[in-house]
């Protein structure tokens, strides 16, 4: 069986830690068995490795999340990159076509699809593994996992079985109910309905045949070119609700969607991350602070205080799910991002009266990693090395750099840097278009830089 993990979303419900570049699955607020902070995606990938499923898994995601995935997992993790965000049906279609036409997966093999960030026990993934034999034994179009509810939640969708009992391990599905009121949810549970956790499986032939019927390409390169033709719709609406034969496997263990501050903080091992103080009379209050200034929380209970370069949130936990409604209209660049080479944090942004912009960043490059060798048409930069040592490539020459060095990069100059040890520098950009599109990458690897630049001593 092959696994497709879906990694998407902008995570506005966990603002200000999450933004358009750093979705909820990348927030390092959970603890692993060694007491180290880890993200949801790191936790899930570790669980897949524990149960022997990681080797058959690929991650389907957008271009904006590739660096984050590689930074937190590995550069070797297989990734299928959507050319643009189109919802879950196009993402699953692209992944299916990739497995079929690039990886050569047979049409009778089973594909399982799941979110990249469920909060579950390892045995949940053993249940995912059971989907393969369920699809083959049942002859169904789709096999889903239904979680036995612990309370009548209005936040989740429900899968209603055709009958409450079955001689086999699976149940036939009657229909779906999306996020009912609590009173209706309680009645559905009495009828044997289970939570829909967004995990399902199908034979690869089912998806490939569906794409053929729609007149869509089943070759990966061609589907990439025609990706905009795919309807911008969820897999649930486009496929699941139209399928004729659906079964589900019940799962009776713990399962959570940590998509809001109140659910996420329930699973945090500590009430405080980062600088600050929570007074002793605060009950059920969490502080997460990503800045270098202390934050004091005094006499406030049942609250979340989250501080990041993107903003500050002080909220009653019960009210925190409403944050998405308030920040949906915020239009600002992400102030913190993880990249394949390290991270950066925006320190200041100013637009001058003459139209010029000034952007100041603190940039960290991990030892052995490098920024691409690049140039800009619309901005100059000044880099001040503040930590570590590295190699700086500038207009065809490479030289050693260390703390205190100030590197001036005029408009049009070719430049890049590699960290020998963990390296940090302050970057001040000045120009008329401080945008990602003004990065002209010449060499991505440092091997390419060394082959085409001369080494010189400072």
Description:
This protein is an alpha/beta fold and 458 residues long. It folds into three domains: 2-256, Spore Coat Polysaccharide Biosynthesis Protein SpsA, Chain A (Alpha-Beta Complex); 270-327, no CATH class; 341-455, Jelly Rolls (Sandwich). 22% of the residues lie in helices and 34% in strands. The protein is built from eleven helices and 31 strands. Strands 20-21-22-29-24-27 form a six-stranded antiparallel β-sheet. Helix 3 (88-101) packs across helix 6 (204-213). The longest helix has 17 residues, at 122-138. The radius of gyration is 25 Å and the shape is globular.
Secondary-structure topology with pairs:
Blueprint (H helix, E strand, L loop, with lengths): L1 E6 L22 E2 L5 E2 L1 H11 L6 E6 H10 L6 E4 L5 H14 L8 E6 L3 E2 L1 H17 L3 E6 L10 E4 L9 E7 L4 H9 L3 E10 H10 L6 H6 L9 H4 L7 E6 L3 E2 L4 H6 L5 E2 L2 E3 L7 E4 L5 E3 L5 E6 L2 E6 L6 H5 L8 E4 L2 E10 L5 E9 L7 E3 L3 E9 L2 E5 L2 E5 L4 E4 L5 E5 L3 E9 L8 E4 L2 H7 L1 E2 L3
Parallel strand pairs: 1-4, 1-6, 4-5, 8-12, 14-16, 15-17, 16-18, 26-31
Antiparallel strand pairs: 2-3, 6-11, 7-13, 8-11, 9-10, 9-11, 10-12, 18-19, 20-21, 21-22, 22-29, 23-30, 24-27, 24-29, 25-26, 25-28
Helix pairs in contact: 3-6
CATH class of the largest domain: Alpha Beta
User: What is the assembly state of the chains in this entry?
Assistant: single chain
Number of domains: 3
Sheet with the most strands: spatial strand order: 20-21-22-29-24-27
Output the number of helix runs.
11
Strand content: 25-35%
**In total, how many beta strands?**
31
| Share in helix | 10-25%
> Which stretches are poorly predicted, pLDDT < 50 over at least 5 residues?
none
Average of the residue pLDDT scores: 92
Structural class: alpha/beta
Task: Give the biggest beta sheet.
Answer: 6 strands, antiparallel
CATH architecture identity of the largest domain: Alpha-Beta Complex
Q: Name the CATH superfamily assignment of the largest domain.
A: Spore Coat Polysaccharide Biosynthesis Protein SpsA, Chain A
- 3D shape: globular
């Amino acid at each position: 069986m092959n696994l497709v993990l879906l990694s998407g979303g902008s995570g506005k419900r966990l603002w200000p830690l999450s933004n358009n570049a750093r979705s909820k699955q990348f927030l390092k607020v959970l603890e692993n068995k060694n007491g180290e902070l880890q993200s949801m995606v790191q936790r899930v990938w570790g669980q897949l490795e524990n149960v022997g499923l990681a080797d058959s898994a690929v991650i389907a995601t957008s271009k904006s999340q590739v660096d984050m995935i590689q930074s937190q997992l590995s550069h070797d993790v297989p990734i299928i990159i959507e050319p643009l965000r189109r919802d879950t049906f196009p993402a699953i279609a692209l992944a299916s076509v990739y497995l079929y036409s690039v990886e050569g997966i047979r049409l009778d093999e089973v594909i399982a699809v799941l979110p990249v960030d469920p909060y579950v026990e390892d045995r949940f993934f053993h249940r995912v593994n059971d989907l393969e034999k369920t699809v083959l034994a049942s002859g169904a179009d789709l096999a889903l996992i239904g979680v036995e509810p612990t309370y009548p939640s209005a936040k989740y969708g429900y899968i209603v079985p055709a009958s409450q009992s079955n001689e086999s391990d699976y149940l036939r599905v009657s229909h779906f109910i999306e996020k009912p009121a609590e009173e209706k949810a309680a009645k559905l549970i009495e009828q044997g309905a289970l939570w829909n956790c967004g995990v399902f499986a199908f034979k690869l032939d089912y998806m490939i045949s569906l794409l053929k019927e729609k007149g869509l390409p089943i070759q990966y390169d061609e589907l990439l070119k025609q990706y905009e033709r795919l309807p911008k719709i969820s897999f649930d609406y486009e496929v699941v609700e139209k399928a004729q034969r659906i079964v589900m496997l019940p799962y009776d263990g713990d399962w959570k969607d940590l998509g809001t501050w109140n659910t996420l903080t329930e699973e945090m091992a500590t009430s405080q991350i980062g600088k600050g103080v929570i007074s002793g009379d605060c009950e059920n209050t969490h502080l997460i602070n990503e800045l270098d200034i202390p934050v004091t929380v005094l006499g406030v209970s049942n609250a979340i205080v989250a501080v990041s370069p993107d903003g500050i949130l002080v909220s009653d936990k019960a009210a925190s799910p409403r944050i998405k409604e308030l920040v949906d209209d915020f239009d600002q660049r992400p102030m913190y991002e993880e990249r394949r080479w390290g991270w950066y944090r925006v320190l200041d942004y100013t637009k001058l009266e003459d139209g010029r912009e000034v952007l100041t960043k603190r940039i960290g490059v991990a030892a052995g990693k490098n920024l691409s060798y690049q140039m800009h048409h619309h901005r100059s930069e000044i880099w001040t090395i503040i930590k570590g040592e590295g190699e700086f490539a500038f207009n065809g020459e490479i030289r050693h750099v260390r703390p205190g060095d100030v590197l001036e990069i005029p408009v049009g100059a070719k430049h890049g840097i590699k960290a020998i040890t963990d390296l940090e520098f302050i970057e001040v950009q000045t120009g008329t278009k401080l945008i990602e599109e003004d990065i002209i990458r010449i060499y991505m690897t440092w091997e390419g830089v060394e082959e085409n630049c001369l080494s010189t001593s400072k």
